[in-house]
Amino acid sequence: MLAVGSFRRVLVGFDGSPDAAEALWVGASVAATAGGGKIAVLCVLPRALPPEGKSEGTHGGLLLAQAEALLDELASNARPGILVRTSVDVAYSDGDGPGNVVTLYAQEQKFDVLVLGRHGSGSRGKSSLGRVADHAVRACSVPLLLVSAPNGKTAPGRRTMAAPDAATP
Question: How far apart are CA 13 and CA 24, in angstroms?
Fold first, then answer.
């Protein structure tokens, strides 16, 4: 069994949904619990966009801006002495589903854990999981943490990156 503190390189799949935003906060807490590390946010866009496709007025641009804003908020709430490096990465799902893209990315980039929202912005179909989470459960060789936002909204009480105190056993 792996201890949470062993997850220093955390990848969060981000689609702008409340569950994905909650996954970002949980992923940051996991990295902080390890005493610091790296949290990368991966935005999987449905198809390769021209360079102007990343501009602020497009879906991709809005998604990236939302991820950056959440990372800025994380940084402002970080506990003193806990360094968590952050980045926002983009991958395109040309021909592949976003679930395949995010699991392959986690594996190829050697992340310690993949954190996903349980339900994304797409339809759930017959599964109790979203399509990306369902695919990750079946295919990802990296440890996986699925997160749900309480009542479909990111809870304000979860916005502090937690790390154990040195005095805590």
Answer: 8
Q: How many CA atoms lie within 13 A of 113 on its CB side?
A: 26
Six-digit token pair at 67? Answer: 């991820």
| Diameter over CA atoms, the chain | 52
Strand stretches in the chain, DSSP E: 9-14, 36-45, 83-92, 113-117, 144-147
Distance between CA 43 and CA 156 in Å, rounded?
Answer: 23
In this prediction the pTM is 0.78
Measure CA 60 to chain center.
Answer: 16
CATH class of 17-151: alpha beta
pLDDT digits (tens, 9 = 90+) for 8-37: 899 999 988 888 989 988 888 888 887 778
Distances (CA, A) of 95 to 101, 121, 147: 10, 19, 27
Q: What are the boundaries of each domain within the chain?
A: 17-151
